[in-house]
Design goal:
Strand content: over 45%
Largest sheet: 4 strands, mixed
Oligomer: single chain
Helix content: under 10%
Shape: globular
Order of helices and strands: EEEEEEE
Structural class: mainly beta
Radius of gyration: 15 Å
Length: 100
C-alpha cells in the first residue's frame, strides 16, 4: 500500500485511498490523530462487494480523511491485531489550509 507521508488539503476537501485489509485474520485499522486533531476527521470504511457470496477473505477498505479546519494533524494508521501486534503502519501529516 502506498500512502503519502504528507498531504495538503483545503478546508472542506476529502482525501480517499484504498488500503489493505486483513479482517479475516483478526486485524483492523486503528487511526490515532494527534497535533491539531480537530482539523480532520479520519475513518476507514469497508467496501462490500456487490455479490457478497463470491467474496473471499477480507473486504477491500478505504481510508477517508476530511479536512475540517485549518491546522496540522498527524495521522497514525496501524493495522492492528486483537492481541496488539501491528502488521502495517503508516504516518501521514495532513496540512489543512484555508480555501478548497
Amino acid at each position: 500500500m502506498n500512502l503519502p507521508s504528507e498531504l495538503e488539503l483545503g478546508v472542506g476537501a476529502q482525501f480517499r485511498a484504498p488500503i489493505t485489509g486483513a479482517g479475516s485474520q483478526g486485524y483492523r485499522w486503528l487511526a490515532t490523530v494527534t497535533g491539531d486533531a480537530a482539523a480532520v476527521d479520519v475513518r476507514t470504511v469497508g467496501v462490500v462487494p456487490a455479490d457478497e457470496a463470491e467474496a473471499h477473505g477480507s473486504y477491500a477498505r478505504e481510508l477517508q480523511i476530511d479536512a475540517l479546519a485549518v491546522g496540522i494533524a498527524h495521522v497514525d494508521l496501524a493495522l492492528t491485531h486483537a492481541g496488539g501486534r501491528v502488521r502495517e503502519r503508516h504516518l501521514v501529516v495532513v496540512h489543512v489550509v484555508a480555501g478548497g
